[in-house]
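Posting this for the archive.
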Amino acid sequence: MWNTVRTVGKRLLERSIDGPAKCMRPLSTSSAHPSMEGPSSDLPSSSSPPFRDSFELPSSFDFRVWFPMHMSVQLKAMEGKLRTVDLILEVHDARIPISGRNPLLARQFSAARPHILVMNKMDLIDMGKYRRPIEEYYADHGAPRIVWTDCKRRLSKAIVDLRECMIDALRSEPRFNRTTKTEYQVMVIGIPNVGKSSLINSLRSTNLGIKKSAVTEGARPGVTIRVQNRVRILDRPPIYVLDTPGVLPPRHKSVDEAMKLALCDLVLESATEPRIVADYLLYWMNRTGDYSYTRHLGLPSEPVDDIDALLKRICARHEMRVKRMIPGEGYQERWDTDKAVKMFIALFRSAKLRDHCLDKELLLPYL
């Protein structure tokens, strides 16, 4: 039995497992932006199947579970605190600099108070390529104050730059109904898992020298589920911050926006389907001309546009097997496609790919 599976595995590497997926008109390499073209060693041959032009979700996939009840309740609590706030820090994931921003937060909070857009996780994108286009985009869209950070590594220079930008904004902008207050209060907002709590702890540690975390951090979305007590982050001038729960938009304008959030791990995995997330990553890489996943995964084969075929190739190449109970047959060995899904998605989330900015197509006018 084992030798039979091994033989089949070798054959899977030598030829396509499944037929080509049903695709729409291919996105030719010549029509793609030069910055999206992969190295010549990763380019598909002329005999490769065409790639999808759009991504479609199963009809059973429901976005509504991505906006749990606590988000609606806490959004109202945040609105109630707005009168006590002098400045808004909106934390954002640099991998989705445009599509990942919650328009609801931008309208209700960022437009109501002085605002700084914090692009966190800057280490996950090519800063030399994307910093200027992103800043120009937001300069054209009413958000001229942008600070870049990597709160996971707590880079002191980035935190100092943010502190100086905050002080400048607080002193140069009107204080509305808080002119008699001697301290300043800042609200930190954003979608889940972008690093809001990490940013607060980094500000506190750098400015006050206190290493112990003031707010709980987590590697998964949804760790902060309610508006927290305020945390002192600076003595001169006295500045306090409010940590808030991540809030997703209750409705997404497009499938792409929703899947980019899932791919960046900004949505609870229990609310998504990992195989669908992996399929979107495959679609996005093929569409943008990055076929390097075959090299990263050690697959001596052409790019493929069928996620099931890719997962079987990964299993065969890395001998990923699992015993499953088959009714009437007992335990049988099968390919461990769940493990293959995790391996493929990890290429993106662990920053192993050539480019991790999912909004590169939206930034083309600025590149």
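Residues 1-41, 218-226 have pLDDT under 50 and may be disordered. The chain is about 35% helix and 10% strand.
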